[in-house]
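Collaborator request, handled under Task 6.
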Amino acid sequence: MSITNRQIKYIKSLQTKKGRKLNYQFVAEGVRLLEEALHHNFMPTTILFSANSLSERGNNLVMGFKAKKIECIPVSDKILNSISSTNTPQGIIAVFDIPKTSHYEPKSKKYRKIIWCENISDPGNLGTIIRSALAFDFNMVITTGSCADIYSPKVVRASVGSIFKTDFWETTNEMAINMAKNRKFVLIASTLKGENQSYILNNLNKSSKLILAIGSESEGLSNDILASSDYRIQIRHEKSVESLNAAVAASILMSSFYHI
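Structure tokens returned to the collaborator:
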């Protein structure tokens, strides 16, 4: 089996936001990242690999996908490098479907803790937040405003595979606020002026459903989110530091709600 020029052109198009939105697919590359996809049973439609570049670990990964009946196409280093979005490809790239549920309001009752990202435009920050969300049992990420594209290569890499186990909803502030109210979530807004974590934790219990909203480091959260929030939360830190990086702040706050 060999790859066609048309397939190469198509996979290259998935490196762009326009291509991903048009085709509802995205690419991920690298051994560790794709090991996480296999581990979480998030199966690609196609694997491209270069036998010359793969380590033993990478070859075992290809065998794992073949055992799952995934199409695995051998290609040359030259072709793989032309498709890759990194300077040092690891010999393997995969094409995945974007879950269509990411465009619809979540209906499942399994979502008890949600992280809401507004205007988190840096892909590294958004990917790190997704990684922390999985670590601290926030099993959905909502994005609104000018957030980075969840399925962009940089976000996918920064998530270190957590993207394969996390659900997403790309929506508007109005729809997210309505969902929070209608489904009786406690909306907690992060801000420079608010209550400390212990005060809010004392008012929550094991049955509380919560949405934690995080804004950009430069602008914070929009007024409509702040006005709709049930609590406003802050992280106490030295006054010599004006604000924390958004991903750091989100991770600290999510960790404080881990055990509820």
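The cover message to the collaborator said: "The CA atoms of residues 102 and 169 lie 4 Å apart. The chain has eleven helices and ten strands. Please let us know whether this matches your experimental observations."
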